[in-house]
Design goal:
The structure holds 2 protein chains of 2 kinds.
Chain A: H1 4-16, E1 25-29, E2 37-41, H2 45-58, H3 60-64, H4 121-136, H5 141-153, H6 157-170, H7 174-186, H8 190-203, H9 208-220, H10 224-237, H11 242-254, H12 258-271, H13 277-296, H14 300-313, H15 318-330, H16 334-349
Chain B: H1 11-24, E1 38-40, E2 71-74, E3 83-86, E4 103-107, E5 113-115, H2 117-120, E6 127-134, E7 143-149, E8 153-157, E9 163-165, H3 167-170, E10 178-184, E11 193-198, H4 213-217, E12 222-223, E13 226-227, E14 241-245, E15 251-253, E16 268-274, E17 283-288, E18 294-298, E19 304-306, E20 327-330, E21 339-342, E22 351-356, E23 360-363, H5 365-368, E24 378-384, E25 393-398, E26 416-417, E27 419-424, E28 427-430, E29 442-443, E30 445-451, E31 460-465, E32 468-475, E33 482-489, E34 501-506, E35 509-514, E36 529-534, E37 538-544, E38 550-557, E39 560-565
Parallel strand pairs in B: 33-39
Antiparallel strand pairs in B: 1-32, 2-3, 3-4, 4-5, 6-7, 7-8, 8-9, 10-11, 11-14, 12-13, 14-15, 16-17, 17-18, 18-19, 20-21, 21-22, 22-23, 24-25, 25-27, 26-29, 27-28, 30-31, 31-32, 33-36, 34-35, 34-37, 37-38
Classes of the chains: A mainly alpha, B mainly beta.
Chain lengths: 364, 573
């Protein structure tokens, strides 16, 4: 069990509305299979600095290890190998949304992409095939789900709702309810989404994905303390639920508790090991967020170090290229910075618009 | 067994540094800071203006019906008292050239206004959005450029209280869907050129109507999963236009010649000038919706290069394009370099770009406190010193574009309150809940223009609202500090002195301002430069005119308006 006691305390304090420094925050702290340490964030900012420094020094052995050798990560589910395929989630439920860049390991495009096409022929053919399979046997839940997922990938969020409603009629189990809840949430039918998630919890108490999605709903409603509560419960239910940690950190940033966000990002990096492509993407995002934080604090060399590793691991992570470009610019390495900016813009240009307006990404 | 992550962040050094840095993210130290108080004085002002922009409320089907209109403060009759020009729009039922007329209000300098539209002849009936003010013929009176959905209009001030529509002769009609515009002298020849931002190349016959089956199939007709009217993503963007002033009452489309033609145009909305690199010529920043913003660097001869991406002003800190709406420039941290702010869509920060010595910018939004209002959808914006303490505060006008947003429990509303950020040593505290009744008004606000219209020494605001009346906000703060208001008159430079840079030193503080073109959203603020001076009772004023000449005024007495005429034999830089 990782982080459980600490998260409970974080959650309890958040609900009390205390400041980040209003009380000692004990976090059970491990480093892979290394002995457990205790990190204490004291009330005074100076003590926070000291505590983090001490812990950093204690944990330096683990930090120095190559990522591939630390810890004892679990075998990834075979299904995870296929991007976009349903992967195993806590309590055996599938994931139905892929939030991170599914092509994270693909090289960045070499040349500017043409204008976003109105229809991609390969995509169209696949969609037609999935539709035909679904229409051939409307009672085949698997075919129905595959078609719905393909539509979701194409941004057809309204169109998938009746499909998931049908799936829930055919198979009223927790998986269908969770998928239905997400489909409702994606089209801002929040009350119905909440009902679906609560149905999951009725069938499987403390089901982590349902708890996480209730957190996402709270975030959509701008109820950030509520979201923190739900994410904390998801982590309590599954202390290795990386996405819940990541969303918790993001939510701490939303409410201005940067130090807590920072602690949770570090926990992801230090304590957790990705076991499938999706978790790898989340892990990469945690690295990116930490590097961005360093950059915003004017620590360009540290940021550049992190980001150079990130762009090697995830060459198609456009934000990492851009952030690395910023770091290089601050370090006076203008030519390299320009190269990173160009890669970033090529990646951006290759993406199709999926919304009427640009704004910060949504929690999913 | 899969190994851990394919990268191994070497965290120790970073962690040490970050931990130290995190402490710097703490909010600014709590201080007993007086907050300016604003009153809604529209009702007694004589201003009667309600916006028309498509059908009202939930009858809107197109993006064209949601962008609102702007306002401009100007002294059209040269009496030293500020007047107000208000743009208005139309509906598809009325037609694009039979809109609600724009209005010109003559101010008495004490807060009362009289509608003089008919006499002045500036009741343009196009589907209006933006307005720019500039003395295009250097004859000493301000001329008006009205930016429309459809052909724009240029009104030359005859100097007798009336205007003449010279659009056709001047050649500046530009039939696109225009939004904001800015007058500035691109090549230093002493007359004002004109930049016009265009939004979308819009044809309602080719765009699915909100609620139609075709719209339901398009991701770009949804916002965060919610069905909305289509665009701007997925629609063809409009091409911005640069007009060069020929000096004879005509203009030439110089977009290509100046290097500003874009093979992939952007959805232009807000426009503001600045000399970001301190080289003496005016550069231009354009806030574009949902794609990268543009920073056009001027080579001094009127040729421009877009350095938005490489200057780090095109995107946010994470490299994402934002939905740029309004923009303004100003030196918020008094380091002598002009910074930028861009307002954005809901669920996103308004972006504050700090100028790093004229080389590039850093997105400091989160650090300086802009995350306090992330759920607002923001438009008009102004760097102004509302509390006269010697640094620039921020006013931001807010309002959503989707009237049906009120139906969803997502923490967003069509009508929103405006925000006031007070500058506290380079960080901003959002204080609107303490800033008086004027900030309690919720509408779907759009444009904002700033001026000391009642000549009492502090900066007031006029805010436009979609489908609703304008809001005149009078700054009623008890006097906190002294001020100086400067009117610049160019003689060898353009008469408006757009591009002049003024440095005021008083009370141990140096403040730099530029006489800007554009700024905010669809709007234009007063042509004077206004400095809060705190407790200082005299000031040193240094002017760098657009032609590079320098002028200095010592021991200038405060709490007054000073007209500075460019000296005939000013020192050359």
């Amino acid at each position: 069990m990782l982080f459980e006691n600490g998260l409970r305390r974080i959650r309890a304090r958040t609900l009390r509305g205390g400041s980040p420094f209003d009380a000692t925050m004990a976090v059970r702290y491990t480093s892979g299979s290394k002995p457990v340490l205790m990190r204490t964030l004291d009330p005074a900012p100076a003590a926070l600095l000291l505590a983090v420094v001490v812990i950093s020094a204690c944990g330096s052995g683990a930090d120095a290890e190559p990522a591939g050798s630390a810890g004892s990560p679990a075998e990834p589910p075979a299904a995870a190998a296929a991007a976009g395929a349903a992967t195993s989630m806590p309590n055996g439920l599938p994931e139905v949304e892929f939030v991170s860049d599914p092509d994270a390991s693909a090289p960045p495009p070499e040349a500017p992409a043409p204008d976003p096409p109105q229809g991609d022929s390969d995509d169209d053919a696949l969609l037609a095939e999935l539709r035909a399979r679904h229409e051939a046997d409307p009672a085949d839940v698997q075919a129905l789900r595959a078609y719905a997922r393909a539509l979701t990938d194409r941004g057809q969020k309204q169109a998938v709702v009746p499909l998931y409603e049908r799936a829930a009629q055919l198979d009223p189990g927790p998986r269908s309810q969770l998928e239905l809840g997400i489909a409702y949430a994606n089209v801002t039918r929040l009350a119905e989404a909440e009902a679906a998630y609560r149905e999951v919890l009725r069938q499987v108490p403390n089901q982590p994905a349902a708890l996480l999605n209730l957190g996402n709903l709270a975030a959509k409603r701008a109820d950030f303390p509520g979201a923190i509560e739900w994410y904390g419960r998801a982590i309590e239910s599954d202390p290795e639920y990386m996405l819940a940690y990541f969303h918790l950190a993001q939510m701490f940033r939303e409410v201005g508790q940067t130090d807590r966000a920072y602690a949770v990002y570090l926990t992801i990096l230090d304590e957790m090991r990705p076991t499938n492509p999706r978790e790898q993407g989340i892990y990469n995002e945690a690295v990116f967020e930490l590097a961005s934080l360093a950059l915003s604090l004017g620590q360009a060399a540290q940021a550049e170090s992190l980001l150079s590793q990130l762009v090697r691991a995830a060459p198609n992570h456009s934000g990492a290229h851009y952030a690395r470009g910023q770091a290089l610019l601050q370090l006076g390495r203008e030519e390299e910075a320009q190269q990173e900016f160009e890669i970033h813009m090529r990646i951006m240009a290759s993406r199709k618009p999926t919304d009427a307006m640009a704004s910060a990404p949504e929690f999913q | 067994m899969t190994g851990p992550a394919a990268l191994s962040p070497r965290i120790l050094v970073t962690r040490l540094a970050l931990a130290a840095g995190v402490l710097a993210l703490a909010p600014p130290a709590s201080r007993a800071q007086a907050v300016p108080v604003f009153s809604d004085v529209t009702a007694g002002s004589g201003i009667k203006h309600t916006n028309v922009c498509g059908e009202p409320g939930r009858k809107k089907f197109w993006i064209t019906e949601t962008m609102g209109a702007g306002a401009a403060w100007l002294d059209y009759d040269g009496d030293g008292k500020l007047d107000l020009y208000l743009v208005n729009g139309s509906t598809y039922a009325r037609g694009a050239d039979k809109g609600e007329p724009n209005q010109l209000y003559r101010g008495d300098g004490r807060g009362k206004f009289t509608d003089v539209t008919a006499k002045a002849g500036v009741g343009d009936r196009g589907w209006g959005h933006g307005v720019a003010v500039g003395d295009i013929d250097n004859d000493g009176d301000p001329d008006l450029y009205v930016v429309n959905l459809g052909p724009n209009a240029l009104y030359r001030n005859r100097g007798d209280g009336t205007f003449e529509n010279i659009t056709a002769k001047a050649g500046v009609a530009d039939p696109g869907w225009g939004t904001s515009a800015a007058f500035f002298d691109i090549e230093g020849d002493g007359d004002l050129d004109l930049y016009v931002a265009n939004y979308v190349d819009f044809d309602p016959a080719k765009v699915p109507k909100f609620g139609s089956p075709e719209a339901a199939r398009r991701p770009t007709c949804t916002n965060r999963g919610l069905a909305v009217f289509c665009g701007p993503a997925g629609l063809p963007p409009g091409q911005d236009v640069l007009y060069r002033n020929n000096g004879d009452g005509t203009f030439t489309d110089a977009t290509r010649e100046a290097g500003m033609f874009l093979d992939k145009p952007r959805y232009g909305l807000g426009v503001v000038t600045l000399d970001f690199d301190g080289d003496g010529d005016l550069d231009l920043y354009v806030a574009n919706d949902s794609v990268e913003n543009s920073l056009w660097r001027n080579d001094g001869k009127g040729r421009f290069t877009d350095i938005g991406v490489r200057s780090l002003t095109a995107l946010d800190a994470a490299g994402r394009p934002q939905a740029g709406m309004g923009t303004d420039s100003g030196d918020y941290n008094n380091d002598g370099w002009i910074d930028l702010v861009a307002t954005n869509f809901s669920h996103d920060l308004n972006t504050l770009y700090r100028n790093m010595g004229g080389k590039f910018f850093v997105d400091e939004s989160q650090l300086v406190g802009m995350s306090a209002t992330k759920m607002a959808l923001s438009w008009g914006v102004g760097f102004q010193d509302f509390d006269l303490d010697g640094d620039l505060d921020l006013f931001i006008a807010n309002g959503h574009v989707y009237p049906h947003m009120d139906d969803y429990d997502v923490g967003l509303y069509f009508r929103q309150r405006n925000h006031l950020f007070l500058n506290q040593g380079g960080r901003f505290a959002e204080v609107s809940t303490r800033a008086g009744k004027g900030f309690e008004v919720a509408r779907s606000f759009r444009g904002a223009a700033f001026a000391d219209y009642d000549a009492d020494g502090d900066i007031d605001a006029l805010v436009t609202a979609l489908d609703e009346p304008v809001l005149l906000l009078r700054n009623d703060s008890p006097r906190r500090g002294h001020y100086l208001e400067l009117e610049l008159v160019g003689t060898r430079s353009n008469r408006d002195a757009v591009g002049a840079r003024v440095t005021v030193t008083a009370g141990g503080k140096r403040q730099a301002r530029e006489r800007k073109g554009g700024g905010s959203y669809l709007s234009q603020s007063a042509p004077t430069l206004h400095f809060g001076l705190g407790a200082a009772t005299s000031a040193l004023v240094q002017v760098r005119w657009p032609d590079g000449s320098l002028q200095e005024l010592r021991d200038v007495a405060v709490d007054r308006r000073v007209v500075i005429r460019q000296a005939a034999a000013a020192k050359s830089n």
